[in-house]
Design a protein that fits this description.
about 25% strand
Amino acid sequence: MSTGGIGQRPQPRRVAIVGAGQAGALLALGLRRQGCAVTLISDRTAAEIRAGAVLSSQCLFGSARRVLERISDLEPADAPDIARLALTVEGTGTVVSALENPAQSVDYRVSCAALIDAFVAEGGSFAVEDVTPEGLDGIAAEQDLTIVATGTGDLGRMFVRDRVRSPFDRPKRALAVAYVRGLEPDDTGAELTISIAPGVGEVITLPALTTTGPCSILVFEGVPEGPMDCFDDVYSPQEHLQRCRKILDDVFPKVAARARHIELTDDGGVLRGRVTPVVRRPVAFTQSGHPVLGLGDAVVLNDPITAQGANNAVHAAGIYLDAVLQRGTEPFDTEWMRATFETYWRSWGRWSVAWTNRVVDGLPEHVLELLGAAADEPSVAALFGTAFDDPSTAHDWWFDPTDAERVLDAVRTTDHGVDPRALRDAFGQYATGVTVVTTRAPDGRKVGVTANSFTSVSLDPPLVAWCPAKKAPSMPDLMAASHFAVNVLASDQHELSRQFATPAADKFAGVAYHDGIAGVPLLDRSIAYFQCRTVKRVEAGDHIIFIGEVEHFDTSEGAPLVFHSGGYRIASEHPDFAGPSSR
């Protein structure tokens, strides 16, 4: 970063973003609103994007919508809400799941063009250019940070495939999309429907907002060389629509009955192709050796079957935005670039990729058993809807037959006089801070788990408590440890909350920490630490209450991370609060 003389303000960080899709344009707008000197480069103007063909199907679920709202105020008011999901597997049945927070689908021709217009209105520099690797070299030479947010063409090929994280070397589905009007509602009342014909393919329907108003999207996912892989000889939009109708008649008659009167929204409302799911290394180098950072599809490209593309883009943009702003005046070197991507990967990307890859390989038998149980058990049905909003929640029961059986056992022994989902939602109305409780296992391993069940108990003696679930994988280590630490997270540490809330071989990978009493890890930048000796453990239902005596504590300035109604929040001072002295 360049600086002026004594007494002068530092010059704003210069950032170039190549690619104005959901991730690139959103990040550009967020950085510009925070005072960065941002250049956004696209191969088309906003007007050309609006007038062009559809770029994808997309669906933003609740967690991604919260990130979008934090960065921009551009969600269209007339986009239809998606409040329920219906998943149907031929021969098994249908599960209907209410989404905890409604999803929305907005045609990229609408959303990306609106982001570009807003970016320009904020004073951002927008350029129309088909950037080549040679051109990227010149751009990177003039910027503090250059980000590539397009995975196509020669720029996409600059990023090397990560073989460890990319199990597929060819497409898993033949894809076709149609934006239509006239699709009848599903008889389950679900707005988002996913119908699966095992071994043949899937069809997804959802309401959306396109350039001409509300519409529906049909997404066809055909197993290669199967009966749904049949679009190679289609050339015109109307041929495309007719082929879609034929697939519905032949494979999905229930959806076909809803589609008797469908028509395309416009001639650009069709898309077909094949996608090889891939994860690429996040840093590439230009001809002169300048490092550039990949974003969105440039580095993580999923099959659309789980509707995670837009969610990946928005979450990545949010994490990159925070990382740039936290960097201050330090250089955006390759170490920072890799660390920024790894933050996104650990907190979001790996779960989305693992879940999507497992789905395209076919539903495991234990998942089909859960699906069968979900028809009568709302708490099981909720698992499916929650997985689309946050794929990390599917990690155990989708991948592990033992954990899936544990879910079913819990349902069988539940007192059905209380709806667990409704009770959880009611508990969620109580806003809490977010902590990571850490300890050392007897063999020296570091242990950490996210918890919002932390509370103070007593001042004399100084006691605190927290309540992990009995089935928590870390429970044996927690029970064996003499000490634990409660790390109170700052408002910008939400990625740490997610990282320690989900299973991993090493939850501390990439995490800055230092050792406290008894070697217990203390997470850097937490706004408070309480180092405690465990004095009592009390069984309470399906949890265990740990009571600890505070042996040392530290605090620092900063806003806390807040959790309320299933989402992270930022605390702000109440305008009418006058302080305790007024009481």
